[in-house]
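Sequence decides. Our protein:
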Amino acid sequence: MNENASGADRQQEAQLIARAREGDRVALRELVDLHKDRLFAFIWRMTRNHHDAEDICQEAFLKAFASLGTFSTKYRFSTWLFTIGYRVCLNGLRRKRNVTGELDVSALSLAGENGASQSLESEEAGQLKQKVWEAVDRLSIPQRAAVLLFYRHELSCQEIARVLEFPVATVKSHLHRGRGRLREMLESLNEEDLHQFRSLSG
């Protein structure tokens, strides 16, 4: 379920959460199925490691379900889940001391986040995708997270602030600086190209 989910979808999700709080395992599984792909896509792009992303997502869901009683339904469940996932991811990256944002060429993959092969596309589009993602991987961790959440997952600055646990002004600063760094690294790309984050799939 995305951040633009309809009122009916939100009501259905609220019912699942209520059932899950009562220990309904089917409801728990449905919540996982609703959000696992988007969470994995975000975490994989942050870690660039399939195994680490799977472990982080699993831990994030376990932590979320363990503290489900503290969740406020005035917020989106996906935003709350991304907050937990990002915190677990950040702790993992810190443990690995991978906090410089340097590009790990050996770990970079242009396959889809779900492991499927890239769909057929023009050579030009493929080159654009590669250039953009290599540049994104060079951003600092907070900048990378803000850019991914804004362009790929279409979260608002307020929602990103909740996920990253930063003030909104700090999120806007990370987005501004991240876009600036991307423009420096991708001198041949314009702002229209940058907005293709919403449609890129790898």
